[in-house]
Specification:
Low-confidence stretches: 144-149
Shape: globular
Largest sheet: 2 strands, antiparallel
Radius of gyration: 20 Å
Oligomer: single chain
Strand content: under 5%
């Protein structure tokens, strides 16, 4: 029988997954604005953790900077002047954050600057790659029959397909790690997160690799099973890095969860930590490596 906490975790996870699938499918501004909302809530939790350690980050300035970064990324999709605006937001807003801390009655410390700039990178620059990934339309990543290629362009573009596959690999890693770790886990993976086990991590890696290999086979990439498996391994690795990074911050702040928004999961940041480092990896593999192989 499932415990009350496990039941809440499954239900809230299912609802969050369905909403995520809906906005990924809608794409466009629906996807970008939903990402903006998630980032805003996650940033509030991140700054709450930072403040628990005595750090005084530039909260409001960084919140605005991250929203600007996401919105200009959406406007800057493709070529032209808007793409340069998007590229300039990160250094300009980073300088603005430092300037804001300098103007405070009590000048900011190295820790204040570092926490603010890391917040911009962690919950601004990294998530912006979800927008870039979802809006890929100009690449033909398949070596498939004309019917499949036409089906992809007619129903969903390649940006949707790769965003969906990436999310599926992350979900496979999370579920594989959690379920197998709960049943068979014996050896702790890291003192940063004692609940995670080596056995669970291995199962998570194998789950993500399997999804990647199947995807590469279906899309008929050259060496599709191998390339897909490699992509799955990278996604699993950086999902784990994201998970442990957030655990490290919670441990430093002395908190069990980043928040209590999602029943059974904790806060928004607890739910999305595996989704932060992964989109940049997938995006650059897709635009740089797979076209060369094909």
């Amino acid at each position: 029988m499932l415990s009350g906490l496990s039941r809440k975790r499954i239900i809230s996870g299912f609802v969050a997954g369905m909403l995520g699938l809906l906005f990924v499918g809608l794409g466009g501004w629906w996807f970008t604005l939903s990402l903006c909302l998630i980032v805003h809530l996650a940033l509030l939790e991140y700054f709450r953790m930072a403040e628990f350690t005595g750090i005084r980050p530039a909260t409001k300035t960084t919140l605005v900077a991250c929203q600007l970064l996401l919105l200009t990324t959406h406007f800057g999709i493709g070529e032209g002047f808007t793409s340069f605006i998007s590229a300039g937001v990160l250094p300009l807003t980073g300088a603005a954050i430092c300037g804001w801390l300098l103007l405070q009655p009590k000048t900011g410390s190295i820790a204040d600057i570092a926490a603010s700039i890391f917040g911009l990178f962690y919950l601004g620059f990294l998530p912006s790659h979800w927008i870039k990934l979802r809006n890929i339309t100009h690449l033909d990543l398949t070596q498939s029959s004309p019917s499949l290629t036409h089906g992809l362009s007619g129903l969903f573009n390649i940006g949707f397909v790769m965003t969906f596959i990436t999310c599926l690999m992350i979900v496979a890693f999370d579920i594989g790690s959690y379920v197998f770790g709960q049943i068979y886990g014996r050896r702790p993976l890291s003192p940063i997160s004692p609940s995670k086990t080596i056995e669970g991590a291995i199962a998570g890696f194998l789950s993500a690799i399997s999804i990647g290999a199947i995807s590469g086979f279906i899309l008929e990439w050259k060496m599709g099973v191998f390339i897909g498996a490699m992509l799955g391994m990278l996604v699993a690795f950086f999902a784990l890095v994201g998970d442990l990074t957030e655990s490290m911050m919670k441990r430093d702040a002395g908190l069990k969860d980043s928040g209590n928004v999602l029943p059974g999961h904790g806060g928004i940041l607890d739910r999305i930590d595996s989704y932060l480092f992964t989109p940049a990896i997938v995006y650059y593999v897709i635009i740089l490596i797979i076209p060369l192989i094909n």
